[in-house]
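Researcher: Go.
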Amino acid sequence: MTADPRIAQITARIVERSKPARDAYLQRVSDAISQGVHRSVLSCGNLAHGFAVCSPAEKEELSGDSVPNLGIITAYNDMLSAHQPFETFPAMIREAAREAGGVAQVAGGVPAMCDGVTQGQPGMELSLFSRDLIAMSAAVGLSHNMFDAAVYLGVCDKIVPGLTMAALTFGHLPTVFIPAGPMTTGQSNDEKSHIRQLYAEGKVGRKELLESESKSYHGPGTCTFYGTANSNQMLMEMMGLHMPGASFINPNTPLRDALTKEATKRALAITVNGNEFTPVGQMIDERSIVNAVVGLHATGGSTNHTMHLVAMARAAGIKLTWQDISELSDIVPLMARVYPNGQADVNHFHAAGGMGFLIKQLLKLGLLHDDVRTVYGEGMEAYAIDVKLNEDGTVRREPVEDGDSADPKVLARFDKPFQPTGGLKMLSGNLGKGVIKISAVKPERRLIEAPALIFHDQQELQDAFKAGKLDRDFIAIVRFQGPKSNGMPELHRLTPPLGVLQDRGYKVALVTDGRMSGASGKVPAAIHVTPEAKDGGPIAKVREGDIVRLDSENGTLEVITDTAEFEAREPVKADLSHNDYGMGRELFAPFRHHVGTADEGASVFG
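Model: Structure:
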């Protein structure tokens, strides 16, 4: 199927822009492939160390070049609900590998932190940087050069982008991502948000708040709202790095286990030892990246991916820009309503037809490149399926039928989208560049013009709210929250008070060089503003009372003032020394010093 000409044009532009970096990357991948099975270059001492704990049979197999060895990179820990299910995966993968005539070893572990645990805490200032650290940690595991393919066990916010960057850095290796799935549905996300607002207003206490949160986050699996973690799973399927239909099957179910075993066997089947060699660096190309962005817009996914996708693409020599993302947003309709863009959670989304139905509709619209390579060996049409379990415990896939989804309020047909454009918009103006997620913002709130109130810390806004000083129209300028300032933490503690004020009838909005992520909701929030305040960006020139205009429909972000006077202002500076120490922040000083801008991926890798 030929992609929409507008999609094809944007893709061609990315190809042309990327050509020097992409050609150099592909040459490095080819050079690595040309060396053959990699452990063959290891000395006897190297190899003996590498398989010292293997069984005699596995040692015999790994001594030659014909039996593939699968490296497992795992983000397991049992504090994170999304990653706890991975505890049992290595044993399952090793067994499946043996059945397929291969060997599997855990190559290494990577850190996996939970933004939900660290929200509003000092540890949150490590979160964004953990993505690049995860990529580096995975590289350490794979650097032993023992492996013919790799599988990656990760789900949440920075983990999957970091693992993808590592996978593409080791682009000569075939790669499959294996998810754990979402937790079962608990208390509705809408009720959870309501209790949070009541707590912010002082109408319920901590006991009631904790009880509500515990009903929402209650068992193993990913949080069920459509934040960055679940956006990650969508992206992996859109990029062909999952087995078809794998994204949203609950943990600890027979189908989940069957998909894990199938993914293992597929990873071994696409090594250089077989007939379908699929190195990930050649498989993922500009078309794959465009498909990912299309999926992000069609589902109203996480704003974090305006940074992560840029960084992930660059790991493969592909130069994706915010302008590309913005233009794709103008083309791609919103096809899904999942909280915070609707009442449904990801389990409802999956039950309504899930990724298979969504992909089918996007293909009908011509918005996807169907001719991409995937780990499944076919294009995106192979992902337009329902996945089920056979009686013998194997996986069965059935093509998605024409017609409506099982719940048209959650998943729309190609000819009945929820809105004509995607959920993310890029902003620009004399305040710099930024991002806004508007899929959950009511149309009448997409243009806010109001006086600026200045805050250099999210706690300052919280304190002002509790003191009753914010009962008015205003745009909160929360600055010195960018990657160089303090690691660009998410600012979700601002959502309840701003939501309360909006419900009281005030015109409110947020402008920040920090993040809000996939949980960005009903309050208009211009985020990732760059240049950031620490770099002397225009956001550092805004003064209390300046009239700020945030127009998400037209994509503008401006201070309404005399241009010459505004440009002549000296940017404000802030004492950020309190961000330098505690909870490991001192160890991440080099990251703060070397990190790039948000629109270039906020990466330390340049």
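Model: Residues 424-578 form a domain with the Glucose Oxidase; domain 1 fold (CATH 3.50.30.80).
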